[in-house]
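Large ribosomal subunit protein uL1
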Amino acid sequence: MPKRGKNYQESLKIIDRTNLYDSKEAIELVQQTAKAKFDETIELSIKLGVDPRHADQQVRGTVVLPHGTGKTKKVLVFAKGEKLKEAEEAGADFFGGEELVAKIQNENWFDYDVVVATPDMMGVVGRLGRILGPKGLMPNPKSGTVTFDIEKAVKEIKAGKVEYRVDKTSIIHVPIGKKSFGDEKLKENLDAIMEAVIKAKPAASKGRYLKSIVISSTMGPGIKLNTQKFME
């Protein structure tokens, strides 16, 4: 076990590890445990009662956080014709076609956070599958990043749209903002994510859907939430 720092040890003293907190209490505590000198990200980890090895138990989607994530994402758009102008006017940071494929292939260029593509460009973008795929950057219809509505896609991403996706251990990890947001904004972002995840419950999921929920800051300990409160 790695040795934890002084701030982490001090934070542990104010948390009852046996208690399940409601979201308001948990957010107040996570603010107190975020002791780093930088503006820590507050993250939610949701353990689900699904088996992600089965296609009918995948949990994946997107949600626009009411107050964003605290980070402005750089957006790259693959499009052609009038859709390039639409991308520019919507605020995309980079936009183009074949020339950007070459730039990524030849220069190992990754100065962007999200990639959006129109459906008619996916044949071109598909050549980047082995490069973008492992980094989670490949456009996908399920995450709203393969679309002809470029304006909507770019604006939602810039406004704070996040993707949630269950991993192979049945856990969703998703940021809900920064410490500087304050309790109310973090609570509203948390509620928006939980509502989306609950609505995304697969029909094939049996038994208890929400196994555990933990909130934590970048450098702080995890704080357990009462899952039952979200199912009421």
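thats it. Residues 16-69+161-231 form a domain with the Ribulose 1,5 Bisphosphate Carboxylase/Oxygenase fold (CATH 3.30.190.20). The chain has two domains: 16-69+161-231, 75-158. bye
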